[in-house]
Structures are given as structure tokens and as C-alpha cells.
Amino acid sequence: MGKSKWRWGVILDAGSSGTRLHIYRWEDPAKAIKDADDDELRSLPQIKTKKKWTEKKRPGISTFGDNPEDVGDYLQSLVEKAVEQIPEEKHADTPIFLMATAGMRLLPPLKQRAVLSEVCTYFRQNTRFSLPDCDRHIQVIPGDVEGLYGWIAANYLLGGFDDAEGHAHGKGHHTYGFLDMGGASAQIAFAPNSTEAEKHADDLKLLRMRTMNGAASEYKVFTTTWLGYGVNQARQRYVQKLVDSYLIEGQHEVPDPCMPIGLRTTEDGEPIKGASDKLELVGTGDFAGCLRMTKPLLGKDVPCKDEPCLLNGQHVPGIDFDVNHFVGVSEYWHTTHGVFAEKGEKVYDYNTYQKKVEDFCSQEWSEIEALQSRKKDHSKDAQEACFKASWLINVLHDGIGIPRVGIEHTPSPDINITKGIGEAAKEKGFLDAFQAVDKIDDIEVSWTLGPMVLYAAGQVPPIDGTDKHPVGFGSNVKGIPDDFQFAGSNWTALSLTGDDDWDDLAEDLVDHVKAKSSSGLLLFVLIIVLLGYLFRRRDRRMRLYGKVNSLLRPHPRRPGSPRKGGRGLSALTSKLFGRNSHTYERIIEEGDAAQFELGEVESDEGDHSDSTSGTRQGRTSGLATPKLNMMGSFDDLTKSAHIGSALDRSGLVVRTESRERLTPHLGAGRSRSRAGSPTRLKSPLMSPLNED
Question: Where is the signal peptide (predicted)?
Fold first, then answer.
């Protein structure tokens, strides 16, 4: 059986409150290049996913710091889902990553290493996915790297990478800034304007991707993180400040202006009913007082050693809000839209938002609780909404400096400004200095898409057949910097068959009928019978039989469980397609980028962000991300390589284009030994995981 044209990737986002599985898929570049038109050749690879390819599990893996040997059982259901969704013949070619964020950063280094080591052992013993280097594939990523990945994901989905003219904001700028906030940390990433980029060139990261024609596409991005500035950690600091300031000796009640009137909780936020001798926080519903109490937590009074600075004395280049339009995800979205936004309302407006928050937070808790009881699992959101809103307002406006629309000067959008703005930017609606989003064109914005964009771009053959401009990121210097983090992929082509479009059609039909009634099921079976007659080749019949049989069997068979004999319609399909052949179930879909769909986001403060790594020697099939402590050195070749005029330290992007369509480089790639597969190492000898 020939290999599928699809490439796959698996990423587990190990956040502070839980771990979310993401499965991604893209067309093998050799096939995609062959069929691409001129616009597609100038674009990045098209990465796809589906709602059913995501799954969330609680709690976060940081809770296994004291018992790391149990982390494998915790991950089992997520790993089994990936194994079931990805075709078996593609497992050895599919990279798997677990990238942990701020929840794990809070653990001591020895506990971090113990948990990550157990994860690696579990993956290698229970899957055949590609895992050549645990240090690169299973790690705690720094917050600035998480921010960079999020910046890539947001701009990829908005389309600015592929359509610079359509997304022009003025002053030659066509990318969007990225803001992320989770439970433990917050990130910012943006490309400064040309003046600031030249002034602060040493503070920027060089990001290089590769379009389908093999040309290098380069950006200079600033990114940083604030550990302790996520909503959960900020709340803990706030509560401690309350207790220190207002607890009277011999008393056990502390007034809390950031909670609705009459709400009583413990220090950890657990509601208290009835009399109690525990330390209590008692809501007073004073949102103006809440803003005053949370503002000092920004750390604006911390000395700035490298001007300019934003929060906690950390350096950030000057932000030009005329061209730096930010999208905020995770808590920026949930805090502005989870409790306060009307249905269908998307745009953040400071005046409107603050008025809604004040009205909500000044109510009696009993009234709010009665309203929230109609909404499933939202009482916790309502309980924390006032603090989160005050924290977000302070971070956005007093911390980062986002203009308050309607109060302060904002650049958008009078007639003179809009003349220089691209049509795509206008259509997307991202003309304000800040807009909170959870999806872009019905696609969830997740930082996990960033590593997959880099990995897929690294599989595109370079325009001249040599890797003078490798895909990845590192310090903003000429040539290939010593800390450059390679994408980890190569451009070895797959052997392809002509059956993939047929598989995509059948898969789409299966997905469609599963969402419909039983009458739709009957119609679907009739369609399959007709198509089965038209496509009479045995291998096609076998794949089709597998899809129909999986549909008629309501519950998927778990690996290792016995097969059950077919009855009724299942027996009919056996007669049509053959009875005794082994089949693979695939999840395959054709379509444009607009059909790319990610999983639903739970309204949870720690699900999306939270950030904090491995050095790289040469290239391997793993995605490299930076470590906090770099060790070792790169090959002499990488030290001496020179990018030359393709780089411009002060510019935002340098793109090398080809006037001719690229002939795909289909050179024989290095074959993978089955005997040497990582999954055959039941007791792997692992290289040590570096401590932060």
C-alpha cells in the first residue's frame, strides 16, 4: 500500500490547569508544490486540523511533581486518541511534542526533570511516533518562545504572512502584535516599527520560515514574558496584599473590593456557606477600589535598567500603536467576553466594558448567583470576574499602554489613515490598537499552531537545494546565530498514491453523516455503495469498507480489543468490499484554509497560556526550542554559514522570491530503520534533560 500524501504532527500543550492534545496535518510539500498555483507557491504550507483532533484533560502535569511515575497513566487517554486518529502507517513519520508552560516552570528543576523523563519513557514505550530527542520534543518552553509561537499562529491565521499588501497597516507594516495571558504568566510579541527595530536590534529574534516556492521569509520580532502575571498568580499576590493590609488581629474577616457584595470565600477562592472560623474574604463590590488595589501589582515602580520598560522593570521596545495592532487571546478573550459581553459582541471598547463591569460587580452576590445558576459551570467565572476584569484593564492600559478608546488618542481609523491600510486588514476588523479574539475565521488561536507552521515550512525544499537560510529562530545577527533553533524537519519526499482525494471525500461524508439523523445515514450508505461500484479497485474498496464499518459501529474499537462480527448493513458492506482484509481508518480532508477548524475552548483561565528548553546540534527531525541554559556548541558549518544580503537588521521582513515555479527536490531521504524505532526501546537510554 502506498504512503499517504499527508504529513502529521502531535503537540500536547501542558498548561498550568490541564493538558490539551492538538493534532495537525498538512500536505506533503512534494505533492503540494506539484499542484500549486503562483499564489500558493508564495504562501506558507496549509496546515489543517479538526475539532475532534483536540482533547483536554485536567489537572496540569505539574501536579505530578511528587509522583512523576503516575504521569503516563494521566496522559494515556490523550495518547490513545492521537494513535487512533492518525493512520498507523504514518506514526513513524509523525513527530510528537509535549511543551509545558508556566505551571511546570514553578516546579523545582529536579521535579521538572523527573516528570519530563517519565513522559519521554511513556511515549517511547507506548507509541511509534517520531521522538528522536527527548530534550527537544519534551520540555518546559520559555515564556518568550511561547509568545513567539503565538505570534506566528495569529499572523498565520490572519493571513498577513501570505498577503503583505492586503494587511498593510501603514509605514510598511503588515503583521499584528500578540498578547497572551493564562493562569501563571503573560506574554507579548510584536514586530516593532522600523525605527524601533533598528534602535533595539539586539533585543529582537530573527524568525525565518519558507514559502512553498522555497524562498526564505524573515521577520524581526520582540517577545517577552512576565511570570507571575497570569490571573491566578496575580490573584494570589493580591489576596496576600489584602490580608497584610486589612486583617485585624483576633479577627478572621478581610474586606475584598474585587468580589460582589456579600460573597464570602476562603483565601483559595472556595465559597463559604454559614458560620466559619476560617480566614474569610468578604466581597464589598467596590470596583473602583479594586482597580486601585490591583494597579500596584503591575510593578511599574520597579527600576528600569534598559529603557523603555513596561511591567516589572522588564525592557520592551517602544510600541507604535499606529501600526502595532494587537490581538489578545486566552484570558484577554475570556475576561472581556465570558461574563460581560452580549451575544455576538466581539469588539473591546474601554468605556463600554468598564461600565458593564462596574454594574455587575456592585450587585449582591445572591442576585448574581441566581442568574448564573442557569448557566452550566459558570458560577466560578462570575465569582472571579471582577478581579480578572480589574487586572486585565490595568495590564492593558496602565501596563502595556493600549490607548483607551474614547478617552485617549487612538490612531484608527480616519480617512487619511485608512488610505494606507490594506483591504484584508479592514475586512478582518483589526484596525483598533487592541482586539480580544478566541477564533479567527472560526479557527481557534492557539500557540501550538506556531511550532507546526515552522515544522511544516522546514519540510519545503529550499530554492537552491541548500540550507543557507534554515527555518527556525534565534538571535538577530547575520548568518546562522549560535543559538538558532532549527525547525527540526527536513524535505525528504514521501512516495505518493493517487487515492488521497478519494479518501478525503469518503472521510468528509462520514463526518457529515455522523452529525445527521439516521435517515441521513441510509442516504450515506447508498452513496457509498454507488461510489464503491465506481471505484472498484480492491485497495480502494478496503479503505472504504473500513470507513463505513467504523460508522456503523457506534463506539470505536480500542487498540487490542477483539473485533465483533458485522450485522445488517455492516454485512452488506462486507459483501460489497470484501470481508477479511485489514483496513486502516484515516482522518483525511481536503479544503482551503477556511475549513481549518480547531477544538472548542473551555472558559478556563489556565487552558491556553502559561509559560518556560534544548540546545540543538545540527538538524534532526525534532522541533528545537531554546533552553534557559545553553550548553555545548553548534557544528563549525553552522558557525561559518553566511546569510548575506538576505538579512536586514533594521527591516521587518526580507523575502526572497523566485520568478520560476519550483521543481520539487525529490532526492532520496534517509530511511528510518524499523528496528531502531524509538517505540522498540522498552527501557530507553535517554540523554539527561537540562535543568533551567
Answer: none
